[in-house]
């Protein structure tokens, strides 16, 4: 994060807090959340995209503290489950500022969203449209709806997180005509209010041409709806997915520049079709919270493993692993790391940072040069773990999930406490009390 540096001892300091002190007080491992960094990234999107609405995508990382920061910075919130809705409402979020996603929202989730007065429900299937019509009719309510469409673009990202090609579960296809049909149906239903189209092409995307192609196809549909149904939909959501730098090779876009580019495309296309420019919104998650957190681990064992041709690799085992960061194992994600508790001038050696779980795929950082004197008791920090690490954490092997400790101006605040063995055993109905 921006407010991190190595201090005179060579130890990592985040938000004015030495991570050695942080771990001594709060235990190891821990996620360290830089409040100022989070807020300034949120603000950069808000200010950069000043003509847009910005919905922070809570799936990247959500807790009540984050909801409050998001609301204070003037952003809205994208949620995609009853659980995320519960966090938002518990934090006192204005329901009007929530957008509710999901390809299989349950009757109970839809009911809660409707009754809470959620600002937009993004519908993803004909079944869901039927369900929403029925639920709204029973309550004599009108549900504000956006229609999730797939633009048929191949986003350049990992297959599991690309969402706008044809053969996947999300949205209504523009190409097949399903999207137009869905929009027409929503438009006819008196129980539904048609707000606009929604397109999200995938996550961790750097190549802006994907956004551009998708935006053009979505706006063409927006214009067709205006033409043939005589409805000017007031809104348009272009989703999230803006990539961040995990290693130094990546080159993330600046929000203001992205905004200018996206704004231009929308305006140009709308003008081309002679339709009014709708209110555009976007949904960044990773680009706001990703760089704002790092994970600090303690080294437990160091092992030298011989490779072919006389080469070797140092396996550095830390006190966490795929249960607090599944991204390396799941998406082959690249992370970097740094020795965080001291200065070392030992020669760098090729190291792999692995966890404590019982499988060899339990890798956090595939390849990194660490000082060759790295040893048990050292601390290792992995930057860029704010997005999709705590939110996808598990209890695999009954390893309790680490806490999230916010830092600011030299002070720490526990925003999510460490999970305990008692927490885990509390769900085990056979455990003696
Ligand atoms: N809007 C919608 C409708 C989404 O599905 C997503 C992400 C976002 C916004 C936010 O995307 P972002 O700006 O954070 O890239 N677990 C995967 C990422 C899954 C993304 C799912 N949807 C990972 O760790 O890379």
Automatic annotation (TrEMBL):
Species whose genome carries this gene: Kribbella voronezhensis
Lineage, top ranks: Bacteria, Bacillati, Actinomycetota, Actinomycetes, Propionibacteriales
UniProt pathway annotation: Amino-acid biosynthesis; L-lysine biosynthesis via DAP pathway; L-lysine from DL-2,6-diaminopimelate: step 1/1
NCBIfam families attached to this UniProt entry: lysA
Binding site for substrate: 286, 327, 331, 359, 388
GO terms for biological process, alphabetical: lysine biosynthetic process via diaminopimelate
Name by which UniProt lists this protein: Diaminopimelate decarboxylase
Cofactor: pyridoxal 5'-phosphate
Modified residues (N6-(pyridoxal phosphate)lysine): 59
């Amino acid at each position: 994060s921006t407010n991190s540096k190595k201090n005179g001892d060579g130890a990592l300091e985040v938000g004015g807090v030495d991570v050695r002190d942080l771990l001594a007080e709060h235990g190891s491992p821990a996620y360290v959340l830089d409040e100022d960094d989070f807020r300034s990234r949120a603000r950069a999107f808000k200010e950069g995209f000043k003509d847009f609405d910005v919905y922070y995508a809570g799936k990247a990382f959500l807790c009540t503290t984050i909801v409050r920061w998001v609301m204070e910075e003037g952003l809205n919130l994208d949620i995609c489950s009853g659980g995320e809705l519960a966090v938002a409402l518990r934090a006192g979020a204005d329901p009007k500022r929530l957008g509710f996603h999901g390809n299989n929202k349950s009757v109970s989730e839809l009911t809660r969203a409707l009754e809470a007065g959620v600002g937009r429900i993004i519908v993803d299937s004909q079944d869901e449209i039927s369900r929403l019509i029925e639920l709204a009719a029973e309550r004599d309510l009108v549900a504000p709806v956006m229609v999730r469409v797939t633009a048929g673009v191949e986003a350049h990202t990992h297959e599991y997180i690309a969402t706008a090609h044809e053969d996947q579960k999300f949205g209504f296809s523009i190409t097949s005509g399903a999207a137009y049909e869905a929009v027409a149906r929503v438009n006819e239903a008196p129980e539904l209010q048609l707000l606009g189209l929604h397109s999200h092409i995938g996550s961790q995307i750097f190549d802006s041409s994907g956004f551009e192609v998708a935006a053009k196809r979505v706006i063409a549909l927006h214009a067709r709806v205006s033409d043939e149904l005589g409805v000017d939909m007031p809104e348009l959501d272009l989703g999230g997915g803006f990539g961040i730098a995990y290693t130094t090779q990546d080159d993330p876009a600046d929000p203001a520049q992205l905004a200018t580019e996206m704004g231009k495309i929308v305006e140009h296309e709308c003008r081309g079709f002679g339709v009014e420019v709708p209110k555009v919104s976007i949904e960044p998650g990773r680009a706001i919270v990703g760089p704002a957190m790092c994970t600090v681990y303690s080294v437990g064992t160091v092992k030298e493993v011989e490779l072919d041709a006389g080469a070797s690799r140092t396996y550095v085992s830390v006190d966490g692993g795929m249960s607090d960061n599944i991204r390396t194992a799941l998406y082959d994600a690249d992370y970097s790391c740094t020795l965080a508790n001291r200065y070392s001038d030992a020669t760098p050696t090729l190291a792999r940072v692995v966890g404590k779980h019982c499988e060899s795929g339990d890798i956090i950082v595939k390849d990194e040069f660490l000082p060759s004197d790295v040893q048990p008791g050292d601390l290792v920090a992995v930057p860029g773990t704010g997005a999709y690490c705590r939110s996808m954490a598990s209890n695999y092997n009954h390893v309790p999930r680490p806490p999230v400790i916010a830092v600011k101006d030299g002070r720490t605040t526990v925003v999510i406490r460490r999970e305990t063995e008692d927490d885990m055993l509390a769900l085990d109905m056979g455990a003696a009390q």
